Fold this sequence. Notes:
The protein contains nine helices and three strands, in the order E-E-E-H-H-H-H-H-H-H-H-H. It is mostly helical.
Amino acid sequence: xxxxxxxxxxxxxxxxxxxxxxxxxxxxxxxxxxxxxxxxxxxxxxxxxxxxxxxxxxxxxxxxxxxxxxxxxxxxxxxxxxxxxxxxxxxxxxxxxxxxxxxxxxxxxxxxxxxxxxxxxxxxxxxxxxxxxxxxxxxxxxxxxxxxxxxxxxxxxxxxxxxxxxxxxxxxxxxxxxxxxxxxxxxxxxx
Length: 191
């Protein structure tokens, strides 16, 4: 999701390239916390000054290995990263849209306790679903989750589809979310 997806989407702050942490600094400045010019921000001058050329195919394996090493040392331990269950991943992706990770964590756990699968969510009254979503805002996301759960139960016998096109056809799911679930739940290489 966008915003605070905990490593799956873009963030709104400046990211220190070596440490992977978000730092606050005024727009237009390029000084990083370590007195190095390695931070890239949203300011067009920053992007132009610090843009990275595309990797040559021969460098991709080395870059991938370095990135995975960094993630192994610095990646946050989040519950949706420890599962391949498409329902749990979908819940996290939807909750993390426009919502910070720290806010989502207790809601995510409570949601899965209350609605552990598509069938339980599909059976729930809309008022119960909206009550469980209270505090996360954007209530259309909760209504769409319930509608998607009902579709999964009716059209796919409760088994989440693996095909990204079938996932995108579910109510309220766009390309990014559908592909994120296909990637994290089914290990599919989709953009």
